[in-house]
Amino acid sequence: MVKTLVLVRHGVSERGSEDMSRELTRAGQRALSANYPHIFGLLGAEGEEAEIWTSPALRALETAEIVAEALDAEGLEIHDSLYDQDLPALQAELEHADAETLVLVGHAPFLGYVAETLLGFELPLTKGAVCAIDVRGSLGHQHECVWKQLGDVREPHGKLLWLVSGPSTQPWETLDALDEACAHAATNLEDAYTEFRVHPEDPAVIKAFRFALRGTQLLTKFFSPLLNEEAVEIAEPVYRLMLGATTRLREIDGFSDTVADLMESGELSQGSKLVSAVGAAREAERDRVCEGLRKKAVRRSLRCALDELFEPAWSDTVLQDGLSFEDITSRFDYMLETIDARLFGLDMTSFSEVHHARREVREVEHILLHLSDTLGEKRANYAQIMQDIDSELSTVCTAQRNISLVKEWKDSMDFRDVTSDLAIVSEHEKVLIKRVIEGRETSILR
Fold it and tell me: Which residues form the CHAD domain (predicted)?
């Protein structure tokens, strides 16, 4: 004999598909999974032997499965009456129910109508809402009369024990957006790595690979306080290893670009042997990098890091509470404040300071690239500002690296025939740095 009837409206579901096959949104699932253990804990010992009936619609079935997990219950009974909103059929089924606690998972407005006829007043059953009703004839009626009187609001026979509104999905919608950003970054890195293994001779490919690496590294760093420590410990060494392994190759490519520009401007002759000397240095470095990155251990490590991105291991607190819009924007705003402080009075003659400043600027660029929709239009507008700052700092960084390469190569036997051309490159870069410094504002953010 049923003593407690629990009514559950399904959680937030997808729109647009055929009604029976509409699924819960991922945010809807997460919201219910986080809240139902606490909500159904209100049943106490009565919930231990609860029976669960559900509508056959997919969104209701998925909700019922989360209820079953919260109650540690086995098995679900599908009742078409809960989808068809067939009150006489449901009445007949209830008369033969054996469980003392019965959970009905269904839809509006039907469940609201059932609650109203039992209680005599309307209940606001939002999506995911749960209410428990004592149906033992609390107003002096016999239990067997309760189901026969369903539909007659003049004769309420139940007593409301408790009602909990459906949980907000907003915190989990934010988390879903972060999941999508991580998956997108992982896909980009996976594709870029594959392309690099096939075409390591293409400077554009190595540039794209490093861009994807840097993006995933910075995204992981941005999310690190929200992730399990183990997830960060798995990913960070992999990104650092691969970025370190490819740094010199990218520096040589940057030098090659400068040489090409100087040849186009006429500062270097079209027949300069510097092109072939730099090309030989790049080929040797490319072979070294490819040999290292093709090792099975490296590929396995990258695979593990990618898996962590495709399925981020959020901390228990995040999984329980979700994330608010402010959780993300406050971290981003702090990044902007940090960059502004670093740019103010930045010593452009210091390679270390310029390098660190550019890295922080690029962190913001990557976060905006992946999270612009989450951060909102106002913050997304910083993208162009960051690109302008990055361009300025990159000009100085590249010039400083080119000067360092000239210092290294001028005493090398491989470059003995092009020392004069190396000197031209070095002098050009020194002039370029001076011009940038003289024309630079104190802080572009101010």
Answer: 198-390
